[in-house]
Amino acid sequence: QVQLVESGGGLVQAGGSLRLSCAASGRTFSGYAVGWFRQAPGKEREFVAGMSKGGGNTKYADSVKGRFTISRDNAKNTVFLQMNILKPEDTAVYHCAADSPPFSYWIRTEARQYDYWGQGTQVTVSS
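Given the sequence above, the corresponding structure tokens read:
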């Protein structure tokens, strides 16, 4: 079992920045690929960013490329999402998730493929 707890959300003006954190406990975190997803009211949960087990590969949704950066500190069992140049359409509840893909370099983008989830943290971007 892996327990995930997100933090760092809040209210920010368009163009601003936030840094989300996801603290993991339980099994060795380095054995999992990690992903950030978001869900806005009335919409499906969507993939935002992911990082492979070893941290060598990253993947981003087109809507956040060049603005968001995912990183992880396995020694601290924490994954981060740095969000810059925020837009009102980035408003959502952001969740981190852990996955056990069959290959170490894989980053999966479908929420149903992830095994463990945090409760989420609200990000609101005002125009």
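The radius of gyration is 13 Å. Try to locate this feature in the token string yourself.
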